[in-house]
Design a protein that fits this description.
By secondary structure, the protein is an alpha+beta fold. The chain has two domains: 165 residues, Fructose-1,6-Bisphosphatase, Chain A, domain 1; 108 residues, D-Maltodextrin-Binding Protein, domain 2, CATH 3.40.190. The protein has an eight-stranded mixed beta sheet with strand order 4-3-5-6-7-8-9-10, sandwiched between helices. The protein starts with 10 loop residues before the first helix and ends in a 6-residue tail after the last helix. 47% of the residues are buried. About 3% of the residues have low confidence.
Length: 291
């Protein structure tokens, strides 16, 4: 069982979770303002990935909020670098995960944020502004899903997220057969660039359905029981962000392709599913030429 850092329990954790959810209410509004805007400015970074004005504005907003509320906490962000921690707490931020979707007017993008203490993720969230969905978790508190359709099935509480919407407990679904599985992954180009196209081909031949509902949306689908597995060959620290915690608290298993579980350092690829099915997926990936 993963241990949490004792000084980080209780009030420190709860305060950060509540603040985090309120910040996401603010950044969701910013994302919606930029989304599908004809005036949206998009540039190409040195690694040939896109970055938009929304990425920069949202990360700056979150960094400013952390600095005001928790000035001794560290920050790791995709767009603006790293600030060292003197409190033991560090926030990892991806302002727009799925920038390609965002800049093409596709609503499958989200904001990722996670707060870790001594390298252990203790609270984190993925908010998808264009879909009106959010998932979040705290260590030992389960994963929660907020969306317009939850209605009377949800539990109302002062969570701070998407105020007025109910929240329901999120859980991965059980799957025992590759042939019946719905697995989400990124585009085949990511497998090709990382010399793992053989793994993509094995997935395509072996699973019932392979879909490119990728980036953070794949993780959200997994933890809310709407797909059976999530596989990606390359993950940056801000890409994986809160998902090891979200998956674990939803009853699943999240590792890299070697089966490594851990957040310090973050895993650099992802294989996530329910416990029994995770082992099946891992075996399918283990022979990849990129490893």
């Amino acid at each position: 069982m993963m241990q949490t850092a004792e000084p980080a329990r209780g009030e420190q954790l709860q305060e950060r979770m509540q603040r985090m959810l309120c910040w996401l209410d603010e950044t969701d509004a910013t994302a919606r303002e930029y989304f599908q805007s004809a005036s949206l400015q998009v540039e190409t970074k040195p690694d040939q990935t896109p970055v938009s004005a929304a990425d920069l504005a949202i990360e700056q907003h979150l960094r400013g909020a952390v600095a005001r509320c928790f000035p001794r906490d560290g920050i790791i962000g995709e767009e603006h670098g790293t600030v060292a921690s003197s409190s033991g707490w560090t926030w990892t931020i991806d302002p727009i995960d799925g920038t390609l979707a965002f800049t093409n007017g596709v609503p499958l993008f989200g904001t990722l944020i996670v707060a870790s203490y001594a390298g252990i993720a203790l609270t984190g969230a993925c908010s998808m502004p264009a879909l009106g969905e959010r998932v979040w978790a705290s260590a030992g508190g389960g994963t929660w899903w907020q969306h317009a359709a939850s209605g009377a099935h949800g539990v109302h509480g002062d969570h701070g997220a998407n105020r007025g919407l109910a929240a329901e407990r999120a859980r991965v679904r059980r799957c025992t057969s590759l042939a019946n599985a719905l697995v989400c992954t990124s585009g085949s180009e990511f497998f090709r660039r990382s010399d793992r196209i053989d793994a993509w081909e094995r997935l395509a031949r072996s699973v019932g359905s392979l879909r490119g509902w990728s980036d953070c949306y794949a993780g959200v689908l997994l933890v809310t029981g709407r797909c059976d597995g999530w596989v990606d060959p390359v993950m940056a620290p801000w890409d994986i962000g809160p998902f090891p915690l979200l998956v674990r608290e939803a009853g699943g298993v999240c590792t890299d392709w070697h089966g490594k579980i851990g957040e310090n350092p973050p895993i650099q690829s992802v294989c996530a599913a329910s416990d029994g099915f995770h082992a099946e997926l891992l075996r399918l990936l283990s022979g990849s030429s990129g490893y």
